[in-house]
Amino acid sequence: MSAPNKSYDPVEVEALKPEEIERMRDEALAAFAAAGDLDALTHAKTAHTSGTSPLALANREIGALPPQAKAEAGKRVGQARAAVNKALAARQAELEDERDARVLTEEAVDVTLPYDRTPAGARHPLTTFMERVADVFVAMGYEIAEGPEVEAEWFNFDALNFLPDHPARQMQDTFFVRSAEDRTGHPDSATEGESGVVLRTHTSPVQARTLLERKPPVYVVCPGRVYRTDELDATHTPVFHQIELLAVDEGLTMADLKGTLDHMVQALFGADLRTRLRPNYFPFTEPSAEMDMVCYVCRGASVGNPDRPCRTCGSEGWIELGGCGMVNPHVLTACGVDPQKYSGFAFGFGIERMLMFRHNIEDMRDMVEGDVRFTRPFGMEI
Ligand code: DAH
User: Is 105 in a helix, a strand, or coil?
Assistant: First the structure.
């Protein structure tokens, strides 16, 4: 700011000359008129009305003038600033009106349009995958067989050659259903385990039901829900799904079982994938085996190769699928099939586990919680 000066001629203060003030005002008015939208106007406003705008800087010079000149210059600057503010307010109002009108047309909602009250749903990946597995067998001529989820202990265990003291019958694995006479719910009267009725712990009882219903040759698959007294965590769920296969015919051998497994694995995971059998024990098959398939991701290349670890098989090279074997002659006899004439093979595995490694799902709870963010990526198969 200039120092006070008695002999000061306001005309000599460049910024306060009338034509200078007019120029500043006109520039401001032109900038406002040129602003095409509210953002541009905000910039113009800062340039022409803020504390560092030309008019504000000129205003600061006034204080240094002698009284008469101060009054004249003050009036001049004041009028110019008033004109600028008025023009700004007018342009602001104009641009706001324009914006409102545009928003009203651009964002108009036609409230008379019909809308989708129920967004399209899709079936759960467990269901569609279970059907895909079953379809592999249907294409080979197998039929779908079904059995009840609330099952007689006899079908779930006895018919399948589980001896009465087999550990699988114990309370920690099996949900026993109270008998009809024991619906009082009084703890002292509980007869769980004595009713002879359980929630099926596997789909294998359908083997016995099928053999009692049909005459061989029998070729069936049974997809279904099963129950075990496990806590829900990342790798367990008390309700899960299995798919069971049973073939009983004349002359069936372990080679037929192996060929069927290979075909299933290739149909579901890709051509050229092999399976292997490892000895195991199940009461209802003899011999029994655990079946593995070659890891469909690394195909064994991760084994002993720390540079190429495989998350899918844990660098084992093999993925365990489930149990299988030749139907135990005791089961055939219990179901009225002559083991001298017929032989059979069977296998069963958990659908959740298979879906988990097929899609790298790390937590089983994701499959049961019903969150559409989990199911949506599987697509809208209906
Ligand atoms: N039912 C058995 C389980 O839940 C799985 C199984 C093993 C099924 C061998 C079979 C079989 O048909 O042959 O652990």
Answer: helix
Instruction: Specify the DSSP element, H or E, that contains 322.
Output: strand 318-327
Tell me, in angstroms, the distance from the centre of ligand 1 to residue 237's CA: 18
pLDDT digit string, tens, across residues 188-242:
544 555 788 999 999 999 999 999 999 999 999 999 999 999 999 988 899 999 9
Backbone angles phi, psi at 359, to 5 degrees: -120, 15
Q: Is residue 1 part of a domain?
A: no
Q: Is the peptide bond before 377 cis (omega within 30 degrees of 0)?
A: no
Cβ(331) to ligand 1 under 6 A? no
Within a 13 Å sphere around the CA of 365, how many CA atoms are in the beta-carbon half?
4
Q: Do 253 and 363 sit in the same domain of this protein?
A: yes
Q: Of ligand 1's atoms, which has the minimum distance to the CA of residue 226?
A: 4
DSSP state of 161: T
For ligand 1, the distance from its centroid to the CA atom of residue 46, given in whole angstroms, is 79
What pLDDT is attached to residue 334? 93
Condensed to tens digits (0 to 9), the pLDDT of residues 160-172 reads 999 888 887 876 6
Residue 283 Cα to ligand 1 midpoint, Å, equals 9
- Domain span at 309: 125-378
DSSP bridge pairs for 219: 247
Tell me, using a 6 A CB cutoff, whether residue 221 lines ligand 1: no
Are the beta carbons of 150 and 199 closer than 8 angstroms?
A: yes
The answer to whether residues 96 and 166 belong to one domain is no
User: pLDDT category, 102, cuts 50, 70, 90?
Assistant: very high
Q: Say how many domains are in the chain.
A: 2
Nearest-5° angle of CA 234, CA 235, CA 240? 115
Measured in Å, residue 69 CA sits from the centre of ligand 1 at 107
